[in-house]
C-alpha cells in the first residue's frame, strides 16, 4: 500500500484490470491522485457479496460504443498522427489536399489500461516507408503492432498480445540485441529498474535495479544497444539520477548512480535528451523548465551545468520537448509554450479548454506542434510564420508629417486605407500599401470635438461624414473632398454617426448609395440617403425618415443594421437596448422642438417613462438587453440578428411577428468584458472582437483561442478594425500618435482542430434527450446534453455508425458550475427516432441559478453531423434575485449565496397548462418547487420545505392513479444522512393554475410540511436515485450510497392524499400517509466506492455505476439483487449515468460522465 499512497502526489496509471466481481481499493486507484497526467483505473478484485452468487453464464454482453476521454499520448509517424484516448488508438492522416481526418479507430488496444506512450521503431527508411512498427504502453500494459498504409486504407497487424508487467512503465526504448535479428524493448519501470523485454515471447530477458531504491516520476532511456544504454530518472527527491544498466554483474544486480543532478524544487514530471547538442531538459512541479548541459550521456567527462531556467507556466509543467532551435513545454495551465535557447517565449498556444494539456508531439518536417488535452481535444499548431506582435505593430509617426494638431479620431475604410482626424479639424489619409500620408481637408468648425466615419460602397468610391457640437454634419466623397456638403441637422450636439449599407439580398440595394444615421438631442435619429454619381462625386443627400429613441440618460444610437425581410431596421443604443423600427415612407417635417434644442437630463428607467409613441417610435423594444453600458454592434447574418455589448456578451435574435425575440446569450471567454463586434469569415466561422482590460483581442469561439492580442490601452480610445481573407488591420491612437497592427495571415494547410473539445473540467451530469433520423442515409442520431464544472452545457450528436460525437451547441450562461440537468415536455425514452426533436432543457447548479432553454434539433445535410440545433433561452432564475425583489425582505432570512441545486426534475403536472413545475434538491437542506411559465418566460418559487435539515442530494417523482381519472404526484428526496422522504404534492400542485393567472403578484412560497413517509435506506449520503413503476400502485425505488451499497424498496400508493384542515393563510398542507413500503432489500458491498449512477432498466434488471469505474448489471427478483455481469468503464470519477433503449432488439445504452464520457451498450 505504500506505492498506492504515494500515488496521491503524482500521476497514477490504471491498476490491475478486473474481470469478475465488485472491487475494493485505495484512494489513489479511485481517482484521488493529484497529478492529472495519468488517470486512475479499476482496483483489485474483491469477493462477491453473499447475496450475489456466481452466475453460470452472463445473460448479457456490454460493448463500448463511444469514449471521450483525456488524450494521454501522441506520436507523429510519418505524415500520420497517432493518439491515445483511454485504451483506444486514433490515427489521423494528412492528405495531399491538406485536411486531417480520422482514418482508423482501434478500440481497446491495452484492454483496460490507459495509453500513456507510443514509440516508433526508428529506421533510416522509416520516413519514406509505408510501414512502421509501434510499441504502445500505459500503466503496466504493453503491446506491439505494425502500422501500414496505402492510398486509401490503414492496416494494423498485431505483433504481440497484451503484455502485463509487474510495475508501471515510464519509458520504452527500442535497441538492437546481439545475435537477434529483431530489435528488443527496454522498459524503465516505476521503482527505478530497467527491463530488457522480448515482446514476441512476452518474457523479461533481464532486469536491473539501481542502488537508488525509490519511486521515479519520469524516465528517459538513451542508447542504441544494451552496452551503451543510459537511464535518466526523476526521483521523488526532486533529483535526476543517471546510471548505466549494463554495469550490472551476475553477483550484484544493483547498479550505482553515476551522476546526480539537483536544482528543481519540485517533482520532475518529464525528461528529454537532445543528443546532437548534449542537452538534457526537465519539467517540474515547481513550474519551471530547466536545460542542463550534460554532453554525451554514454561517455560522461564533464560537469553538468544548468544553462537555462524557463519560468512562464502558471502551474505545473507536465512535459518538455527539445528541438534544434526551440524548446516546447506543456502544462496544467493548458498552455503550450515555445521557447528559444535564450529563455524567451516566442510562441504561446492556448486553445484547449480547462486546466491541462496531457500530451504533445512534434511533426518536424511540417513544423507542427500537436497537443492533446484533458478536454478530449487534439489541436494542431504551426511552429513558423505565426503572428509575432513586435514585428506587426507599426507607429506611423503622425507628428513628423503634419503640425495641424494631434490625432483625435481614426477609422479604417479598408485594410489598405486609414483616415485620421485631428483636434484642429484636419482630415488625413494614410495608404498602408505604399506607406504614405495624404491631406484631405480641414475645417475649423470641426475642431476639438468631432465625429469621423467612412464607408466603402459596393460600387466603388468612399464616402465620409463628420459631426460637431453645433449640430452640423459634413458629408464628402473621399475622391472629391472639395465638394463636401455641410448640413445643419440639430440645434445641439451630434452624438453619433453611422453608415449602414443595405443587405445584399435587399431589393432596394444600390451599389452607389448608403444610409447615414445621425443622433442628436432628445433622442432624435435622422436617416439620410447619400448617393454618389458614376464619376465618384457626391450626388444626392436626401432625408428618408427620423426616429425617436426611448427616454434615458444616454439617448443616442450606437449601431444599426437593415433587415432584408419585412422592411425593418434594428438599432442599438447607448443605454444597452435593442429597438426595432419600420423603414417605411418618410414622415412629415417635424418642428424644431421635435428635432431637439437641449440635452435630456432624464435618468428614469421606469417602464412607463421609457415608452415613446407617435411618429418615429420603435415598434418593439428590448430595454437594457446588454446592461447599462451600451450596445456596440448589431449584425444580420444567415437569417439571424447578432448583437454585442459592453456587458461582455453577444446574443442571437430573430424577428417574429414584427417583434424581436432573443434566442440565446453567450460570453466568449473569461475577462473579455467589452465586446466590440463580430466578424463572420468566408468559411462560416465566427470571430469575436473585444477588449480584455487594456488589450484588443480577436477571439475564435470555434478554436477557443485568442488569435490576436494588441496592447492598445483599452476600448475608450479611438480605434478602427478592418479585415480581408488574407489581412487583418487594427489601428488606434495612443500617446499622440497613430499605431497600426497589421498581420498578413498565412492560410494553414490543415485545420487547427483535429478533435473537438468536450469540456474543460469534470462532467457533472448527462442526459439523453432523444433520437433524430438524418435526411442523408436515414441514420439514427442520439442527442445528448452534458453539463460540467466549467459552467457550460454541451449538446452532442452521437451516431453509432460513425463511432463519434459532434458538438451541436454550447450554453455558457451560468456564472458558476452546472450541477444537474432535466428535460421537460415530450421527449422519447428510446423508441423510434423522430424527424425533428423539440423539448425543454433545464440546467441548474451553484449560486442557486437555474436556466431554461427550448431545444430544437432538425436535419441539416450541410453540417458535418447532418443536424442543426437551435437554442432559445426562455427563463433565467436566481434565488438571491428572488429575495431582492420581495417587498418585506428584511423580515425574511436571506438565502445562502453559496446554495447549490444538487438535482432537479420536471414534475408531471395533473393539470393541462402552458406552465410546468420544477422540483429542486438544494444544498441548504431544502426541497423547492418552482413554477415555470414558458409564455411569460418567468419562473418563481412556489413551495419549499427544510425538513431534511441537511444537504438534499437527489430528487425524483412518481405519479399514481388518484381516482376519477386523475393522477396524483409523489415527490421523493434523498439527503446526506441516507434517508429518502416521500411527499404527496398533489394538493399543492392544484394551486399552481391560480398562481399562473396572477403573474404580477409576488406570493410567498407555501410550506410542503412534513413527508408522508421516510425510509432510512443508507448510513450515509444518497448519490443516485431512480424510480420505476412495476404495476398499478407499486413502484421500485432504487438508490446508491457513498458507502458503495445499493438499496431497493417496493412502495405502494393506495389512495390520494387529502389535505387536512384549512390552509389558506399559512399555505401548509398536512397529508395523510398513504405511501407504504411493501418490500425492501439491499446489497451492502455492491461497489468499492460511491455509487453515483443507478437505473432500473426494467422491473427485473438494474444497472449501477460507481467511482470504482465499474458498470454492473443486477437481476432483480423476489429475493433481492443477483449479480449478472460487470465491466470496466474508462471514465474516472463517474458522476452521473443515464440509460435508454435502442434498436429493434431493445438493447440498452448507458452513458457515463465524469472525467470524460463513455457510452456502453448492453444486449441481453
Automatic annotation (TrEMBL):
SMART domains: WD40. WD repeats lie at residues 261-294, 357-391. It is found in: Cytoplasm. Keywords: Cytoplasm, Repeat, tRNA processing, WD repeat. Coiled coil: none annotated. GO terms for biological process: tRNA methylation. Residues 592-601 have a biased composition (Basic and acidic residues). Signal peptide: none annotated. It comes from the Eukaryota. One of its GO terms (cellular component) is cytoplasm. The keyword Cytoplasm applies. InterPro entries: tRNA_Anticodon_Mtase-Reg, WD40/YVTN_repeat-like_dom_sf, WD40_repeat_CS, WD40_repeat_dom_sf, WD40_rpt. Residues 587-612 are annotated as: Disordered. Its main location: cytoplasm. Interacts with FTSJ1; the interaction is direct, and required for 2'-O-methylation of position 34 in substrate tRNAs. Interacts with IRS4. Interacts with STK11/LKB1. Together with methyltransferase FTSJ1, methylates the 2'-O-ribose of nucleotides at position 34 of the tRNA anticodon loop of substrate tRNAs. Required for the correct positioning of the substrate tRNA for methylation. Required to suppress amino acid starvation-induced autophagy. Enhances the STK11/LKB1-induced cell growth suppression activity. Belongs to the WD repeat WDR6 family. This is tRNA (34-2'-O)-methyltransferase regulator WDR6. It comes from Sarcophilus harrisii. The gene is WDR6.
Amino acid at each position: 500500500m505504500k506505492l498506492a499512497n504515494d500515488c496521491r502526489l503524482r500521476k497514477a496509471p490504471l491498476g490491475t484490470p478486473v474481470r469478475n466481481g465488485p472491487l475494493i481499493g485505495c484512494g489513489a486507484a479511485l481517482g484521488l491522485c493529484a497529478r492529472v497526467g495519468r488517470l486512475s483505473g479499476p482496483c483489485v478484485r474483491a469477493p462477491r457479496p453473499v447475496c450475489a452468487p456466481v452466475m453460470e453464464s452472463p445473460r448479457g454482453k456490454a460493448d463500448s460504443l463511444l469514449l471521450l476521454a483525456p488524450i494521454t499520448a501522441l506520436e507523429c509517424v510519418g505524415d500520420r498522427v497517432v493518439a491515445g484516448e483511454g485504451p483506444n488508438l486514433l490515427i489521423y492522416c494528412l492528405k495531399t489536399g491538406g485536411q486531417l481526418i480520422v482514418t482508423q479507430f482501434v478500440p481497446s488496444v491495452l484492454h483496460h489500461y490507459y495509453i500513456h506512450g507510443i514509440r516508433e521503431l526508428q529506421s533510416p527508411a522509416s520516413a519514406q516507408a509505408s510501414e512502421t512498427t509501434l510499441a504502445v504502453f500505459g500503466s503496466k500494459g504493453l503491446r506491439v503492432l505494425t502500422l501500414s498504409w496505402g492510398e486509401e486504407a490503414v492496416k494494423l497487424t498485431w505483433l504481440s498480445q497484451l503484455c502485463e508487467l509487474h510495475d508501471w512503465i515510464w519509458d520504452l526504448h527500442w535497441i538492437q540485441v546481439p545475435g537477434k535479428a529483431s530489435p528488443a524493448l527496454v522498459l524503465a519501470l516505476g521503482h527505478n529498474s530497467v527491463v530488457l523485454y522480448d515482446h514476441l515471447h512476452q518474457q523479461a530477458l533481464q532486469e536491473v535495479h539501481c542502488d537508488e531504491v525509490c519511486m521515479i516520476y519520469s524516465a528517459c532511456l538513451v542508447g542504441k544497444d544494451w552496452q551503451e544504454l543510459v537511464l535518466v530518472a526523476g526521483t521523488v527527491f526532486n533529483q535526476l539520477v543517471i546510471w548505466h544498466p549494463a554495469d550490472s554483474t551476475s553477483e550484484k544486480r544493483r547498479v550505482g548512480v553515476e551522476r546526480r543532478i539537483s536544482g528543481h524544487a519540485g517533482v520532475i514530471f518529464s525528461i528529454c535528451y537532445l543528443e546532437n547538442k548534449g542537452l538534457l531538459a526537465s519539467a517540474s512541479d515547481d513550474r519551471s523548465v530547466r536545460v542542463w548541459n550534460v554532453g554525451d550521456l554514454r561517455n560522461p567527462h564533464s560537469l553538468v551545468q544548468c544553462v537555462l531556467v524557463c519560468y512562464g507556466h502558471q502551474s505545473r509543467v507536465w512535459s518538455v520537448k527539445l528541438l534544434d532551435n526551440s524548446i516546447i513545454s506543456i502544462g496544467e495551465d493548458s498552455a503550450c509554450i515555445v521557447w528559444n535557447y535564450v529563455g524567451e517565449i516566442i510562441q504561446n498556444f492556448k486553445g484547449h479548454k480547462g486546466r491541462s494539456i496531457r500530451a504533445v508531439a512534434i511533426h518536424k518536417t511540417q513544423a507542427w506542434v500537436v497537443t492533446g488535452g484533458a478536454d478530449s481535444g487534439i489541436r494542431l499548431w504551426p511552429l513558423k510564420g505565426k503572428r509575432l506582435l513586435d514585428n506587426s505593430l507599426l507607429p506611423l509617426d503622425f507628428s513628423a508629417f503634419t503640425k495641424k494638431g494631434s490625432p483625435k479620431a481614426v477609422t479604417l475604410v479598408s485594410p489598405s486605407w486609414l483616415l485620421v482626424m485631428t483636434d484642429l479639424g484636419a482630415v488625413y489619409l494614410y495608404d498602408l500599401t505604399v506607406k504614405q500620408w495624404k491631406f484631405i481637408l480641414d475645417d475649423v468648425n470641426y475642431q476639438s470635438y468631432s465625429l469621423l466615419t467612412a464607408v466603402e460602397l459596393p460600387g466603388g468610391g468612399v464616402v465620409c461624414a463628420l459631426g460637431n457640437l453645433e449640430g452640423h454634419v459634413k458629408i464628402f466623397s473621399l475622391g472629391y473632398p472639395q465638394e463636401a456638403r455641410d448640413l445643419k441637422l440639430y440645434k445641439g450636439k451630434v452624438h453619433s454617426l453611422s453608415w449602414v449599407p443595405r443587405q445584399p439580398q435587399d431589393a432596394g440595394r444600390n451599389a452607389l448609395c448608403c444610409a447615414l444615421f445621425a443622433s442628436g438631442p432628445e433622442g432624435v435619429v435622422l436617416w439620410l440617403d447619400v448617393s454618389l454619381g458614376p464619376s465618384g462625386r457626391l450626388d444626392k443627400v436626401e432625408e428618408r425618415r427620423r426616429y425617436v429613441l426611448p427616454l434615458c440618460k444616454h439617448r443616442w444610437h450606437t449601431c444599426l443594421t437593415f433587415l432584408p425581410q419585412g422592411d425593418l431596421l434594428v438599432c442599438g443604443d447607448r443605454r444597452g437596448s435593442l429597438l426595432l423600427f419600420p423603414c417605411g415612407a418618410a414622415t412629415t417635417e417635424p418642428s424644431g422642438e421635435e428635432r431637439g434644442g437641449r440635452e435630456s437630463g432624464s435618468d428614469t428607467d421606469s417602464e412607463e417613462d421609457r415608452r415613446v409613441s407617435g411618429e418615429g417610435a420603435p415598434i418593439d423594444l428590448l430595454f437594457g438587453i446588454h446592461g447599462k453600458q451600451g450596445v456596440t454592434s448589431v449584425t444580420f447574418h444567415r437569417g439571424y440578428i447578432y448583437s454585442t455589448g459592453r456587458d461582455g456578451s453577444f446574443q442571437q435574435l430573430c424577428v417574429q411577428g414584427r417583434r424581436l425575440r432573443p434566442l440565446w446569450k453567450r460570453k466568449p471567454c473569461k475577462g473579455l468584458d467589452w465586446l466590440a463586434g463580430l466578424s463572420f469569415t468566408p468559411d462560416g466561422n465566427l470571430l469575436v472582437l473585444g477588449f480584455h482590460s487594456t488589450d484588443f483581442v480577436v477571439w475564435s469561439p470555434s478554436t477557443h483561442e485568442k488569435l490576436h492580442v494588441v496592447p492598445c490601452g483599452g476600448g475608450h480610445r479611438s480605434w478602427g478594425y478592418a479585415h480581408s481573407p488574407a489581412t487583418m488591420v487594427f489601428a488606434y491612437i495612443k500617446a499622440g500618435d497613430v499605431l497600426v497592427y497589421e498581420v498578413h495571415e498565412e492560410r494553414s494547410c490543415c485545420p487547427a482542430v483535429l478533435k473537438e473539445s468536450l469540456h474543460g473540467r469534470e462532467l457533472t451530469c448527462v442526459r439523453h434527450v432523444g433520437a433524430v433520423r438524418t435526411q442523408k442515409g436515414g441514420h439514427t442520431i442520439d442527442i445528448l446534453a452534458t453539463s460540467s464544472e466549467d459552467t457550460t452545457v454541451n449538446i452532442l450528436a452521437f451516431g453509432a455508425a460513425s463511432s463519434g460525437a459532434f458538438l451541436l451547441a454550447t450554453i455558457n450562461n451560468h456564472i458558476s458550475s452546472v450541477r444537474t440537468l432535466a428535460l421537460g415536455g415530450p421527449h422519447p425514452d428510446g423508441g423510434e427516432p423522430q424527424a425533428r426533436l423539440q423539448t425543454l432543457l433545464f440546467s441548474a447548479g451553484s449560486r442557486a441559478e437555474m436556466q431554461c432553454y427550448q431545444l430544437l434539433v432538425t436535419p441539416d445535410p450541410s453540417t458535418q453531423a447532418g443536424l442543426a440545433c437551435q437554442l432559445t433561452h426562455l427563463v433565467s432564475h436566481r434565488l438571491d434575485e428572488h429575495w431582492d425583489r420581495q417587498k418585506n425582505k428584511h423580515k425574511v432570512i436571506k438565502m445562502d449565496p453559496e446554495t447549490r441545486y444538487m438535482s432537479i426534475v420536471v414534475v408531471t403536472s395533473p393539470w393541462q397548462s402552458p406552465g410546468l413545475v420544477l422540483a429542486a434538491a438544494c444544498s441548504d437542506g431544502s426541497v423547492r418547487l418552482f413554477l415555470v411559465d414558458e409564455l411569460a418566460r418567468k419562473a418563481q418559487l412556489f413551495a419549499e420545505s427544510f425538513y431534511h435539515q441537511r444537504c438534499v442530494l437527489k430528487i425524483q417523482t412518481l405519479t399514481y392513479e388518484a381516482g376519477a381519472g386523475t393522477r396524483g404526484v409523489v415527490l421523493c428526496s434523498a439527503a446526506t444522512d441516507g434517508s429518502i422522504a416521500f411527499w404527496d404534492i398533489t394538493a399543492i400542485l392544484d394551486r399552481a393554475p391560480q398562481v399562473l393567472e396572477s403573474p404580477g403578484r409576488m406570493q410567498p412560497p407555501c410550506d410542503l410540511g412534513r413527508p408522508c413517509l421516510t425510509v432510512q435506506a443508507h448510513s450515509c449520503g444518497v448519490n443516485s436515485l431512480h424510480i420505476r413503476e412495476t404495476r398499478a400502485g407499486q413502484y421500485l425505488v432504487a438508490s446508491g450510497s457513498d458507502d458503495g451499497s445499493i438499496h431497493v424498496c417496493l412502495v405502494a400508493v393506495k389512495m390520494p392524499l387529502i389535505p387536512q384542515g384549512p390552509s389558506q393563510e399559512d399555505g401548509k398542507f398536512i397529508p395523510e400517509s398513504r405511501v407504504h413500503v411493501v418490500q425492501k432489500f439491499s446489497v451492502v458491498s455492491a461497489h468499492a466506492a460511491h455509487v453515483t449512477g443507478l437505473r432500473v432498466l426494467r422491473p427485473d434488471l438494474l444497472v449501477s455505476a460507481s467511482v470504482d469505474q465499474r458498470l454492473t448489471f443486477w437481476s432483480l427478483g423476489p429475493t433481492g439483487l443477483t449479480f449478472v455481469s460487470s465491466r470496466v468503464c474508462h471514465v474516472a470519477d463517474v458522476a452521473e449515468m443515464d440509460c435508454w433503449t435502442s434498436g429493434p432488439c431493445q438493447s440498452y445504452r448507458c452513458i457515463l460522465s465524469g472525467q470524460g464520457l463513455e457510452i456502453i451498450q448492453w444486449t441481453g
